[in-house]
Specification:
The protein has 166 residues and is α+β, with helices and mostly antiparallel strands. Helices cover 22% and strands 31% of the residues.
Length: 166
């Protein structure tokens, strides 16, 4: 069994090791990782699943923009990565992390969440292809997904998902 806690700085090394096991060292070359370079994850939305002291799952969210910041870009969230210890997949850990974090994001007033991922997995959480909503991301046209946390939040908004760049 596992419990979900907020990630702390003491968890960083264990989370990075889990991400390496789940995605391999090439993960750092992916577009979504480049989006997060130099930007801090949102602490209240950075969660870990623990079994005893072992971290068996993680999810984090990052600030991003639709459009450029200097031109009045629209702030949104970028979910990811979601990772579960490879030997522990299928136990509901990822599902619990996604559901809890989406509730927390909504309660915190966030309106839109994007992610780069497999539609077959994220459909169950209400994610849909972002291109259908008029938002694209360089290098990830088919895997960029979006979910509104507030109905109508994307009404009339179109553009390119951009890094936050503090």
């Amino acid at each position: 069994m596992f419990r979900i806690d907020r990630q702390t700085p003491d968890d960083d090394a264990a989370v990075e090791a889990l991400l390496d096991r789940a995605f391999g060292p090439g993960r750092l070359e992916k577009t979504s990782y480049r989006f997060r370079q130099g930007v801090a994850a949102i602490p209240e939305l950075s969660l870990v699943a623990r079994d005893g002291e072992a971290i068996v799952g993680t999810i984090r969210y990052w600030p991003a923009l639709i459009g450029e910041r200097l031109r009045g870009g629209v702030p949104v969230l970028l979910l990811g990565p979601l990772a579960v210890e490879p030997g522990r997949q299928g136990e509901g850990t990822g599902d619990a992390l996604v559901r809890r974090s989406l509730r927390l994001a909504r309660r915190a007033g966030h309106e839109v969440v994007f992610l780069v991922g497999d539609r077959g997995y994220y459909d169950r959480y209400g994610f849909e292809p972002a291109g259908k909503r008029g938002v694209v991301m360089p290098d990830e046209p088919k895997r960029l997904l979006v979910r509104e946390l507030r109905l109508g939040a994307l009404q009339g908004i179109r553009g390119v998902l951009c890094p936050w760049k503090g």
